[in-house]
Amino acid sequence: MQSNTESLNSLERKISISIPQADVRVEVDNRLKKLSGKVKLPGFRPGKVPLKMVIQQYGLQLHQEVLGELVQKYFRDSVQKQDLRIAGSPNFSSKSLDQNSLNYEFDAVFEVYPEIIIGDFSGLNVSRPSVQIEEVEVEKR
């Protein structure tokens, strides 16, 4: 996993995430193998559907699911590593995939809570106002 962070303004950040295609492929293959033992398709006994048909039926959906989960995981890991406090949900956008690229590229734009630095209050004096209530005022009420 590769990621880098840049500040867009005082509260907005952008993280660029790079996910190796091999990681996605391995996870998709694992899920397809697990699914092939459970899937039911017309004309086949349960669990006896050829892997090629399972890939044809569920491959794209599993690929998108795995990619989404990995984007979230890599984003979460990157945020924790940099100790950022996120305010709200990030907006993810994918970069165009080059034919020769070995990685999926994503950008996540999000806002962080501002850093609040509390100064030294030991030198401050606080005066408490005093109120004197007269007997006449009490009687009035």
Structure description:
The protein has 141 residues and is α+β, with helices and mostly antiparallel strands. The protein has one domain (2-140): Alpha-Beta Plaits. It has three helices and four strands. The protein has helices at 21-36, 51-82, 135-140; strands at residues 2-7, 12-20, 86-94, 103-112. The chain has a four-stranded antiparallel sheet. The chain is elongated and about 100 Å long. 11% of the residues are buried. The mean pLDDT is 85.
Q: What secondary-structure arrangement, pairings included, does this model have?
A:
Elements: E1 2-7, E2 12-20, H1 21-36, H2 51-82, E3 86-94, E4 103-112, H3 135-140
Antiparallel strand pairs: 1-2, 2-4, 3-4
**Sequence of secondary-structure elements:** EEHHEEH
Structural class: alpha+beta
Oligomer: single chain
Q: How much is the average pLDDT?
A: 85
Would you kindly provide a brief summary of this structure?
This protein is 38% helix and 24% strand.
Write a concise keyword list for the protein shown above.
4 strands, four-stranded antiparallel β-sheet, 141 residues, Alpha-Beta Plaits, alpha+beta
